[in-house]
């Protein structure tokens, strides 16, 4: 990495950290709003539950985490975004009172409202799991990119060396058979 690119990266890093924190809070609120969207096929207590809102919220989180990690070239930014999202989801999950946004797991709640309980648990715990998965994927993608860059640089260096070996002798160099008269 050149000195100029290191300088520009260090100057933009605080801004990117701020964007990741804000995006984590926004995704936490958005995911908390989305996770309650459920399709139930059959009877509400015994039918097939499809928590599409939680799945969509987790997909949005995964894509945002991958974007932040690949943009920054680091794991700090996706960790901050994921931790912020999980904190917002945890606050919603633990919120006291009758106006809860998330349905806690209890045997009675599971019996009466299995869809909302499943969607709530999926969003809350899934936000932590998706953060870990995204960090592993980001690290793998960054390592893959670095390896490809090293291989390309090595191939370029080898091509350059092969090109120097096949250059015709210059006119100032002595002729291999000795001086010509």
Describe the structure.
It contains five helices and two strands, in the order αββαααα. It is mainly alpha-helical and 181 residues long. It has one domain (15-156). It has a two-stranded antiparallel sheet. A hairpin with a 6-residue loop joins strand 1 and strand 2. The longest helix has 52 residues, at 114-165. It is elongated, with a radius of gyration of 28 Å.
Sequence-ordered SSE layout with sheet pairings:
Layout: H1 3-34, E1 39-41, E2 48-50, H2 52-72, H3 76-94, H4 107-112, H5 114-165
Antiparallel strand pairs: 1-2
Biased composition (Low complexity): 168-181
Transmembrane segments: 15-42, 48-67, 79-96, 121-142
Region (Disordered): 156-181
* H-E order: HEEHHHH
Gyration radius, to the nearest Å?
28 Å
Helix content: over 70%
Low-confidence parts: none
Structural category: mainly alpha
Estimate the mean pLDDT confidence. 85
Can you tell me the overall shape? elongated
How widely separated are the two ends? Answer: 53 Å
Number of DSSP E strands? 2
Major sheet, described briefly?
Answer: 2 strands, antiparallel
Q: Describe the oligomeric state of these chains in a short phrase.
A: single chain
Strand order of the largest sheet: 1-2
* Number of H- or I-type helical stretches: 5
The percentage of residues in β strands lies in under 5%
In the residues, how many domains can be counted? Answer: 1
Transmembrane segments: 15-42, 48-67, 79-96, 121-142
Region (Disordered): 156-181
Keywords: Membrane, Transmembrane, Transmembrane helix
Biased composition (Low complexity): 168-181
